[in-house]
Amino acid sequence: MTAESHCPLCGARDNRFFCKDRLRAYLRCPDCALVFVPPEYFLSRAAERAEYDLHENSLDDPGYRGFLSRLAQPLLQRLPDAARGLDFGCGPAPALALMLREAGCEVALYDSFYLPDAQVLQPAYDFVCATEVVEHLHHPGAQLELLWSLLGAGGWLGIMTKLVRDVDAFSRWHYKNDPTHVCFFSIETWQWWARQMDAQLEIRGADVILLQKP
Question: What is the pTM of this model?
Answer without folding.
Answer: 0.94
